Amino acid sequence: MSDYPYTAEQQAVIQHDMRQHAKVIAVAGAGKSTTLIGRIVTLLEQGVAAEKIGVFMFNKSAQEEFSARLSKVLAQRGSARQPNVMTFHAFGMRLCRRLEQRNLLSTAKLVTDEFSFIKLVREARQRLLRDNNTLTLQDERDWLEDFLLFVDQVKAASINPQEVFESGSWNKECQHFVALYEHVETLRKQHKLRFFADLLADPFTLMQTASGEQMHYIQTLAPEYEHLLIDEFQDINPCQYELLKALYQSQANWMIVGDVQQCIYEWRGAAPDIMAQQFDHDFGQVTTYPLACSFRFGHSVGLMASCVVSQNQVDQLVVGKGQATEIDFARSNLPGRALLTELKDWHDRGRSLESCAVLVRLYSDMVPIQLALMHKGVPYQLHGDSPLLDNRQIRLLMAYLSVMAGGLQDPSKFYDSNDLEYLLSVPHVTHAQADRKRLLTQARQSPHLIPELIENLADQTEGWKGKKMADRADWLRTLPLYKNDPAQGLQMTLDKLGIYRYFENTSSKDIQAQEKIATCEAFLSYVKGIAKPADEIMAQLRQLNEQDAQHNHGVHLMTIHKSKGLEFDLVLMSGLQEGRFPYYDDDLSAIDRQAAAEMQAERRLFYVAMTRARQRLVFLETPVGEEVRRLSEGGLQGAPKSGALSRFVFEAQPLPVQTLVDQWQAQAPVAISADLEAPLSAYLDTQEDGPSVSFKRAKGAVKEDLKAGDKVRHDQYGQGVVVRQETSGKRMIFVDFGELGLKRFNPKHTKLVRLASRQTTH
Fold first, then answer.
1. pLDDT digits over 5-19, tens only?
2. Residue 580: CA count within 13 A, CB half-sphere
3. Looking at residue 528, what is its pLDDT?
4. How far apart are CA 256 and CA 246, in angstroms?
5. Distance between CA 712 and CA 562 in Å, rounded?
6. 444 pLDDT higher than 80
7. What is the CB neighbour count within 10 angstroms for residue 207?
C-alpha cells in the first residue's frame, strides 16, 4: 500500500503484526476508513483469504459506503474477491439461519417494520392489564416510546430486564416495563417472530446456557474468520461483544477501531468501558495505536478538543491537520437573531446554506431556531425529528390558542380538527376509559358543547375530581377573553390546568419532563414576541408551515446525536447553558460516581459536536461579565450556576487557543493564561513549527488554604473533592478523585484549581 500517501500513524496500523490483537484510537476526521481499507489490502497481499476476513460496521449506510470504497480500491489492484463487510444484524441473521437449520434455535420470521412490534406490545399490554387489574397505564403516547427504548436496552445488555431497569434512571411509573417486556417476549416466541435486535439477542441467550460441547458446536457454525476488523467499537454493546467474543476470542486476531470520547449512544445500550478497559483485560496482549491527526479541521478545534477530552481523565490529543478553522461567539443574546446574523454573513461570503449545520443538545433548543428561520423564510432541513408544528407540546398550546381565537364556535380556527383532543387529554378530564371515549366522540361532533359536556361529567363525579372538571369547563369558556393577549392566556392555562405537573407525572425520565416544559416555554416566548391576537398568530403559523413544507434544502438542523459521522463547513452550537448542556437536575458530579459518569458522557457529546466543523465553529452564546474575564484568562468555570454559560465552553479554552493560533504563523513569542496548560503544552510539543509559548499562572490556581469539601481540578487526575489539608509540616493536601482514588499532594509542587465549595441544594 505504498502508493497511497498514508501518515506514519496510519502506516503503523496498516502494517500491524498479523498475529496480534490491536486497538486503534481514531479521533474525529482521522481517516480511519482509509486506514482500514489499507489494512485489508495488506492482509490480502500477505496471503489471507478474503473469506477469512470479517469487517463489522454499525449501520447499513456505513456498511454500503465502506463496501463501495473497498470495491473500488480492490478493483484498481486487480483483486478478484472482497472480504465480507457486514452490519452486526446481517451477521446475526446468518448465524440464526444456521442455528435454525441445526434445530438449536426455533424457526422464526424476521419482521423489520416497527408497527408490527408495536402491535405485539399492545397485545402484551392487554394481557398485562388482565393479569394485574390494579395497574393503570397512561396514554400510549406517554409511555410507548420509552418502553421501546427499554426493550432496546435489554436486548443490548448481558443482564436480565429487572437489572436493566434497576441500573437505569427510570421513573417509578415505569415499573411495569419489566413485566410488560416478559409478556412481549412470550408473545414474540408464540408467534415465531424475530425483530432486528433478536438476531443477536436470541443466539446470545442460547450461548449463555449452552454446555461446553454445545458451545464448541455453535462455534463451528459461525463463519470461520481469522481476522476481525470492527469499526466504531466505542459503540459496541455487551450483547454484541460477548457474542463475538464467545465465537472468535481464540479463533481470530482482532483489530478494533474507535474513539471512546465519541461514544454518545449509552442511552440505547452502548458500553464505552468495553473499548476503554475490558477489551485489554480480556485479550491480554493488545497493541494500541493512536490516529490522533484529524484532517477535518485546523489547530483551533484540535487544541480545544484536546482540552475538552482531557477533562474526562484521558491522555488523548486531537491534532488538527486540516485547514484553519475560525472560532467565534454569537453577536446577540437571542439565539434566533444570532443565528440569522451568522447565516447572513456566511451567505454574503458566497457560501451555501447547505454547508451549514445548527447542532443542539435538546430538542427544545431547536424551537426558537426553527421559528426564527420559518419567520424569515430561510430554508432548512430537519434531520431525525418531526416538523415543528407536529410536536405534541406545541400542538397542545396551539389548541388553546385556537380556543382563544373562537375555535369552539368555529372549528376551522383549529390548526387540525384532531387538536380538539388536547383540550380533554392533557391532563385527562377523566381517567375512566369509557367516559374518555364517549366525551371525545361527543366533542368532535359538537365542539361548541365541550364546556357543557365536561360540566355534565363533573355533575356525575363527586369530590375534588368533579370540582376540577367544573373548573376546566369554566376556563374553556373564559379563554376567548384572552384573544388579544394570547401569551397571558397560555400562561394561565399552563398554571390553572397543572400541565407542567402532568408532564412530570407522566414522563418516564426527568429529562423528558423538562424537555416538554422547555418546549412550551420556547413557544410561549415566541407568542410573547409576536404580540398579535390569537387568530393572527394561528394564521401566521399556518402560512409559515405551508412555506416550510416546500423546503427540502438549506441549513441542516439536528441534535448532536444525529450529527455523528457528519461534517460541515460551518457549525453553530446552540443551547450551551449549565443545566441544559451539560444536562442535569442537581450537579452532583463531584461527589457521586454515577453523576460523574453522566457528566463525562455529556462532555463526549460536546466533543462530538465541536469536531463536526471544518472551517468555522460558532458558539451561539454571548458571554457576559465575569464569564468574559474567565474566558479571556483561560479560567475554568467557577461554581456551576444553572443558566450560566456551559462549563464545556470554558474547558475548551477558546480565547487562549485563539491567541495561540493567531501567533502560529507569525512565530512570535506569546504569553497566555490557561487553566488547562497540560493538554495545550502536550499539543504544542507535537508541532515542530508551533509558536513559543509561556504560560502565566491562572488567577484561579491555589496552592493552600483549601478546606474539606472544596471542589478542585488537577491537570492529570481531573475533578476531585478535597478531603483535608494538613495544618502542619508540608501541609499536604488529600483529594478524592472518585474512581482514581485518594491522592496526596505537596502544595508547593502541585497546581490545584479551586472550582467551587461543596454546597447543599435546597
1. 899 999 999 999 999
2. 20
3. 92
4. 16
5. 34
6. yes
7. 18
CA 579 from centroid of its chain's CA atoms: 15
Residue 232's pLDDT band, with cuts at 50, 70 and 90, is very high
> How many Å apart are CA 536 and CA 145, to the nearest integer?
34
**Residue 463 buriedness (CB in 10 A; 0-12 / 13-18 / 19+):** exposed
Candidates 47, 45, 48, 90; CA nearest to 67 is 90
To which H or E segment does residue 272 belong? Answer: helix 272-273
For residue 380, give the 3-state DSSP assignment. Answer: strand
Which of 712, 721, 718, 738 is closest to 313 using CA atoms? Answer: 718
Q: Give residue-wise pLDDT tens across range 289-323.
A: 999 999 999 999 999 999 999 999 888 999 999 99
Tell me the whole-structure pTM to 2 decimals.
0.85
- The strand pairing partners of 555, in sequence order, are 380
Strand-strand pairing, 718-725 and 733-736: antiparallel
What span, in angstroms and rounded, lies between the C-alpha atoms of 52 and 752? 52
Q: Using CA atoms, how far apart are residues 57 and 234, in angstroms rounded to an integer?
A: 12
Partners of 619 in beta bridges: 329, 573
* b/e per residue 13-22 (b: at least 16 CB within 10 A): bbebeeeebb
Q: How far apart are the first and last CA of the chain?
A: 63
What's the average model confidence in pLDDT over 395-403? 95
Q: Give SS3 for 558.
A: strand
pLDDT band at 81 (very low <50, low <70, confident <90, very high): confident
CA gap 382, 370 in Å, rounded: 9
Tens-place pLDDT, residues 336-357:
889 999 999 999 999 999 999 9
DSSP-derived letter for residue 278 is: I
CB neighbourhood size of 503 (10 A): 21
φ and ψ at residue 647, rounded to 5 degrees: -60, -30
Residue 578's pLDDT is what? 92
How many whole angstroms separate alpha carbon 532 and alpha carbon 486? 8
Dihedral angle sign, alpha carbons of residues 162, 164, 168, 173: negative
Question: Beta strand pairing status for 193-194 and 109-110?
Answer: parallel
Query: Do 308 and 581 touch, CB atoms closer than 8 A?
Result: no
Of 316, 311, 219, the closest CA to residue 275 belongs to 316
Write down how long the chain is.
762
Q: Which residue has the cell 497511497?
A: 4
Q: Given this model, what pLDDT does residue 385 score? A: 77
Q: Name the band, by pLDDT with cuts 50, 70 and 90, for residue 136.
A: low
As a whole number, mean pLDDT of residues 613-627 equals: 94
C-beta of residue 273 within 8 angstroms of C-beta of residue 649 = no
CA distances from 381 to 158, 567, 617, 662 (A): 38, 15, 19, 34
> What mean pLDDT, rounded, does the chain reach?
89
Nearest Cα to 377, choosing from 543, 575, 559, 558? 543
Write down the pLDDT at residue 8: 93
Type of residue numbered 242: E
CA distances from 675 to 172, 657, 678, 720, 738 (A): 42, 12, 8, 15, 21
What tens digit of pLDDT does each residue of 682-739 get?
Answer: 999 898 888 888 887 655 444 446 777 777 877 778 788 888 877 666 677 888 888 7
The number of angstroms, rounded, from the C-alpha of 645 to the middle of its chain's C-alpha atoms is 20
How far is Cα of residue 323 from the mean position of the Cα atoms in its chain?
Answer: 28
The radius of gyration of the chain from alpha carbons, rounded to an integer in Å, stands at: 29
Grade residue 273 by pLDDT with cuts at 50, 70 and 90: very high
Q: How far apart are CA 680 and CA 303, in angstroms?
A: 6
- C-alpha span between 251 and 246 (Å, rounded): 10
CA distance linking residue 632 with residue 120, whole number of Å: 57
